[in-house]
Design goal:
The chain contains 11 helices and 10 strands. By secondary structure, the chain is α/β, with parallel strands linked by helices. The chain has 2 domains: 3-146 and 340-378, Nucleotidyltransferase, domain 5; 157-334, ATPase, nucleotide binding domain (Nucleotidyltransferase, domain 5, 2-Layer Sandwich). The protein is globular and about 65 Å long.
Length: 379
């Protein structure tokens, strides 16, 4: 191992000193669920790391026939995709494998089998190249992803993490310095979108389909609950909203009968009615997210908000935050739209930022494990 990589290995070992490698090229591999992502990020000096190239394969088409993610199929598809995507990214960045300084992968949370694919390939590459290998927390990747945007934030800030399985508000004072302010006690916002869409007879993935249909509807057409909106804390609950959507859908279905008096399927309802229910559902979810985020900002006294995760791409959520935050002297930051979903860029970025801050431990022996359930607070 060269002197350069020996120096890097020493600083990776959770030393209080910052890494002293001025120019660092990080390969990131994401395989936590149904998207295979690979990216190259370069960290130069103290500036914000630069995204050189990234490639993503979505398994949506494969899982649509089953109405949701099939873990075994997801794992097998990751095996097929990781190396071709790596070759594509290296070509786009005009780099070679031997130029890579660190190989990063998603250690958790996520589907165990899918995580093992990325971890295994990353550690094999690291061993072959004699480079350090870093396991990254999936949610930390989302949380830091806006640093790759056109308007990167600065510490400290409040982070709203909204993805398919997680809804959390965090105080972020620096890399690895996270304090949980509130989280979902049952269904996350993304689950509320997906489950409500399924009740409406929309396809998989349901969240984007519901949001698209909502653009044609009236958000005030149906009165739906805003759970925990006035609870006095920063926790979320969307299971009750999902139940309210189900009840409303059944009422609408019952009103549609054929000549024999049998209840019609919900998809047989007029498009306008479906759009109104979709818009009302989206409005309820977004209302809670926005109100709780503003309360978190007021309580912490911070004036920066970062929104990350797949639901962070929602147009209504962005519009309402963009309208409300400036009135309170708050700047709001989002990832680029193509980096809202799971991707390798956020994994490479998180590894680079943790390495530079000196708070990430190297896997010098190339043994690995994964953490399907891994609270960000334990990082």
């Amino acid at each position: 191992m060269t002197a350069r990589y020996e120096l890097m290995r020493l600083h990776l070992n959770c030393s209080p000193m910052k890494a002293e490698v001025a120019d660092l090229l990080v390969l990131g591999i994401e395989s936590s669920c149904d998207e295979t992502g690979v990216a190259l990020v370069r960290a130069v000096g103290e500036g914000v790391p630069l995204l050189l190239a990234h490639a993503l394969h979505s398994q949506v088409a494969m899982h649509q026939a089953y109405g949701g993610v099939v873990p075994e199929l997801a794992s097998r598809d990751h095996i097929r995709r990781v190396l071709p995507l790596t070759t594509q990214v290296l070509s786009l960045a005009q780099c070679t494998l031997d130029q890579i300084d660190v190989v990063a992968y998603t250690r958790g949370p996520g589907l165990a089998g899918a995580l093992l694919v990325g971890a295994g390939i990353a550690c094999a590459l690291g061993a072959a190249l004699e480079r350090p290998v870093l396991g990254v927390h999936h949610l930390e990747g989302h949380l830091l992803s806006p640093f790759l945007g056109a308007d990167p934030p600065t510490f400290p800030f409040v982070a709203l993490l909204v993805s398919g399985g997680h809804t959390q508000l965090m105080r972020v004072d620096g890399v690895g310095r996270y304090a949980l302010l509130g989280e979902s006690i049952d269904d996350a916002a993304g689950e509320a979108f997906d489950k409500s869409a399924k009740l409406m007879g929309l396809g998989y993935p349901g969240g984007p389909a519901l949001s698209k249909l909502a653009q044609q509807g009236d958000p005030k057409a149906f009165k739906l609950p805003r759970p925990l909106l006035h609870s006095g804390d920063l926790d979320f609950s969307f299971a009750g909203l999902k139940t309210a959507v189900m009840v409303q859908a059944k009422k609408l279905c019952a009103a549609q009968t054929d000549a024999r008096g049998a209840a019609a399927a919900f998809c047989a309802l007029p498009m306008r009615t479906q759009a109104d229910l979709a818009a009302s559902t989206e409005a309820a979810i977004v209302d809670v997210l926005v109100r709780k985020s503003l309360v978190a900002l007021a309580r912490t006294g911070l004036q920066r908000l970062v929104v990350a995760g797949g639901v962070g791409a929602n147009r209504l959520l962005r519009a309402q935050l963009d309208a409300a935050c400036p009135l309170r002297g708050v700047r709001v930051h989002y990832p680029e739209l193509d980096l809202c979903t799971d991707n390798g860029a956020m994994i490479a970025l998180a590894a680079a930022m943790r390495l530079r801050s000196g708070c990430q431990q190297a896997n010098t022996g190339y043994a690995f494990d994964v953490k399907p359930r891994w609270p960000l607070a334990q990082l």
